Structure formats: structure tokens, C-alpha cells
Amino acid sequence: MARKPVGRLNQIAYMVPNLDAAIDWWTQVMGVGPFFVFPGFDMVRSDYRGADQKVEFGAAVSFSGDLMVELIEPRGPSIFQEFLDAGRQGVHHLCAFADDMAATQAWVDSVGGKRLQGAAFGDGSEIAYFAMTDDETIILEVGVLQPQVIGLFDAIRAAAANWDGESRLFDPLATQEG
């Protein structure tokens, strides 16, 4: 078995049919916020179940302590859409970061997992989703992220640590500008 090249689990991701409603629920009921809503993704390549496929979705993240909470609204063919189409909502996958996607793939192969979906981005970051069980009930997202992405997550974590308990959204660019 190859050495596990990924770090600790740091995120739990939820599939939701409506991102805006989910942000309301998480901020009002679970006391998690504020959320950063990704304005879009600069994907230069993406795949879904072994075929080149543009994977479209909306996403927002916040933190509860050091745990990142990600909300994903599927917007087309993907493992995310499959989950909702099966009548499910809620926890979909866990995430960890790594330094090397090829080493991660070798480790996943060595433990009997399989790649389900992934993407490469214009900044050089990569993500991939791996089924860690044959029935695909445990999915691990692995992110190989550039420093500016880690910096964005650090800013979101800081905003959550200092959250006023009321604001729904966080825009780090607005914070930097003024």
C-alpha cells in the first residue's frame, strides 16, 4: 500500500437544492457563518466518471472552528447531481488537502478506491473526488491548492471566528478594499 499523501480531514460538504436557502438555514439554525459564495470557477479541465465533462455547480463555504462547511448546489451532470437525483440531501463528502495529485491517485488505487470526478483550474489548483468504498457511500475530495486559495480559506476562517452571528455573507475583496 502506498503512503497516505493527504492531510487531515478538514471539510464536510453538503448537497443542497438551493444554495441561498441553505445559507439561511446554516446561519440561522446551525449558527455557522458568514459564508463566502464562490463567484464561479475557472476550470481549464474537468471530468465526470472517466469522461471529459464540464461540471457545473454553485458553492459557498464557511467555518465552524477549524472545520470547513461547504454547501454545493448542483447545476448539471455530476456526482453532486446524482446525489440529489437519488432523493438525497445532506452530507456528500469529506475533504483533505495534499501536495501531489498523482501520489494521491496512487494511494487511492492501492486502497481500492476510484476517481469519480475532478477538475483543474487556471491557477494550477486541482481537486478530485474519490469513492473510498465500493458502494460510493464514503467520498473523499482531495484538493491540491495554490497558496492564494489557502489564503482565501484562511480569510474565511478568520471571518467565521469573528462572526457577528447575523451577517449571512462574507466578501474578502470588500474587506481588503475598505
Automatic annotation (TrEMBL):
Domain VOC: 8-145
Family annotation (SUPFAM superfamilies): Glyoxalase/Bleomycin resistance protein/Dihydroxybiphenyl dioxygenase (SSF54593)
Assigned keywords, A-Z: Metal-binding
Pfam families: Glyoxalase_4 (PF13669)
InterPro entries attached to this UniProt entry: Glyas_Bleomycin-R_OHBP_Dase (IPR029068), MMCE/EMCE_epimerase (IPR051785), VOC_core (IPR037523)
UniProt KW Transmembrane keyword: no
UniProt-recorded name of the protein: VOC family protein
Species assigned in the record: Sphingobium rhizovicinum
